[in-house]
Amino acid sequence: MSDILELIKARDPEQKEFHQAVQEVMGTVQPVLDRHPEYRQTAILERVTEPERVIMFRVPWMDDQGQVHVNRGFRIEMNSAIGPYKGGLRFHPSVNLSILKFLAYEQVFKNALTTLPMGGGKGGSDFDPKGKSDDEVMRFCQSFMTELSRHIGPNTDVPAGDIGVGAREIGYLFGMYKRLRNEFTGVLTGKSLAWGGSLIRPEATGYGSVYFASEMLATRNETLEGKTCLVSGSGNVAQFTTEKLIELGAKVITLSDSSGYIYDEEGIDRDKLEFVKHLKNIRRGRMKDYVDKYPGAVYTQTDAASDHNPLWNHNADCAFPSATENEVWKKDASNLISNGVYVVCEGANMPSTPEAIDIFLDKKILYAPGKAANAGGVAVSGLEMAQNSMRLSWPREEVNSRLMMIMKSIHQTCLNAAEEYGHAGNYMAGANIAGFVKVVNAMLDQGLV
Ligand code: NDP
Ligand code: 2IT
């Protein structure tokens, strides 16, 4: 195990997030390797940690003042053992090869857990959509797709949204792909309903994360009703996590963005959530504005360079980190535990640092890793692909009940795999093992690939 980590560190020493993601998976699959010597004999670890293909390209675009800018575009085609590459696009200034490789790597195992035939990929750009006009975002998306269109396709690689890529960006990207290829196909998911999108896709990640938390609580004969919840982020995942929590009778008392967080002791109700959706999705404003509208709430600025986030330091039962990677530090994990939190359900990808995870596992709380808990988003993307292939559109209830079934199945799969390999009750080990076994067996079936 340490061999493979040494190898990837030596090969790409600067890719810290990628190393972190690999270390987490490799740290839990040793019992599988012990039982299956053929995996080591066929260098499966070396193969599964090396992307099948990495595409990196120039994205030139012009701003509203006529100034030319150049960003970098990426698509990591990580693994296609069980289906076409599938995974989101992230537009954020922090985007680099390390972050996208970590996300693509997580995506491979996450997609395997969904029960649907999807391989793993991820892409994006260091473009910052904040403060850009719609026209600027459109020109950027058109330029980005001009190159990306050569590499993707409904049976090859199907991108979707992630941080900074929502319905608006998917629309511009799809329009350009259609124009370049003269094809109306399900090449992207997260499309609008009128032109091939699926009902429930916008809600799916957040709803799925809450369904997963409900399943975990059910193992202790509990429900979310009456539970106090901390949610971070205020984007797609955080909004629909909050929506479902409210529907199930829980009380959400925090939301955040990269500048700070709001604490609303009375709870964020439906009206307040509608305000947040409008603020973030239409006005593209900041969470700070929440307290002008609701003066009973408190806004606290946060410092990205700090080793903790005060959002995680409030009395609560459950926490749903739904903003970004490494947003829950060691100190936050200790604060969560001492404030009574015993459910941590990751809506974001890799939001907890390894030290924070150690604390959750040590305290034996209900801890759901992102690759299981947030798989509802890509699962409904898979259902969008299925509907596109059939040229049909399922009703809301049908998609929602499939999403619920998938989340239940992922929950059970994690428990079963954990139990089978001596990690009973450890959802992180269960998710890693189940995802890993499915993907590497498919690779072995297909020969030296
Ligand atoms: P959005 O762009 O809709 O929202 C992102 C939110 O996170 C914003 O509130 C943003 O604040 C905050 N955020 C982003 N970067 C940082 C940062 N570096 N530090 C602090 N806060 C930050 O993205 P999503 O809601 O779609 O994604 C959130 C997380 O969920 C990501 O980890 C993503 O990979 C994951 N995910 C998303 C899925 C989906 O279907 N969309 C599916 C599965 C996982 P600000 O406005 O200040 O940038
Ligand atoms: O991290 C993720 O799973 C996503 N951003 C969603 C990917 C998708 O293809 O829907």
Provide a quick synopsis of the model.
This protein has 449 residues and is α/β, with parallel strands linked by helices.
List the topology elements.
Layout: H1 2-11, H2 16-26, H3 30-35, H4 37-41, H5 44-48, E1 53-62, E2 68-79, E3 85-91, H6 97-113, E4 120-125, H7 134-148, E5 157-160, H8 167-181, H9 201-218, E6 228-231, H10 236-247, E7 251-256, E8 260-263, H11 270-282, H12 290-293, E9 298-301, E10 318-320, H13 330-338, E11 343-345, H14 354-362, E12 366-368, H15 370-373, H16 375-390, H17 396-420, H18 427-445
Helix pairs in contact: 2-6, 6-18, 7-8, 9-10, 9-16, 9-17, 10-11, 13-14, 16-17, 17-18
Bound molecules: NADPH dihydro-nicotinamide-adenine-dinucleotide phosphate (NDP) and (2Z)-2-iminopentanedioic acid.
List keywords for this structure.
alpha/beta, seven-stranded mixed sheet, binds (2Z)-2-iminopentanedioic acid, 15% strand, Rossmann fold, 449 residues, binds NADPH dihydro-nicotinamide-adenine-dinucleotide phosphate
Describe the overall structure.
It is a single chain. The relative contact order is 0.13. Helix 9 (201-218) crosses helix 16. With 449 residues, this protein is an alpha/beta fold. Helix 13 (330-338) links the parallel strand 10 and strand 11. The strands form two sheets. The chain has a seven-stranded mixed β-sheet, with helices on both faces. A five-stranded mixed β-sheet has the order 1-2-4-3-5, sandwiched between helices. The protein has three domains: 1-50, no CATH class; 51-193, Rossmann fold, CATH 3.40.50.10860; 198-449, NAD(P)-binding Rossmann-like Domain (Rossmann fold, 3-Layer(aba) Sandwich). The longest helix has 25 residues, at 396-420. It has helices at residues 2-11, 16-26, 30-35, 37-41, 44-48, 97-113, 134-148, 167-181, 201-218, 236-247, 270-282, 290-293, 330-338, 354-362, 370-373, 375-390, 396-420, 427-445, and strands at 53-62, 68-79, 85-91, 120-125, 157-160, 228-231, 251-256, 260-263, 298-301, 318-320, 343-345, 366-368. It contains 18 helices and twelve strands. Helices cover 47% and strands 15% of the residues. The mean pLDDT is 98. It is globular. The structure holds NADPH dihydro-nicotinamide-adenine-dinucleotide phosphate (NDP) and (2Z)-2-iminopentanedioic acid (2IT). Residues 86-88, 107, 110, 160, 162, 189, 349, 377-378, 381 line the site of (2Z)-2-iminopentanedioic acid.
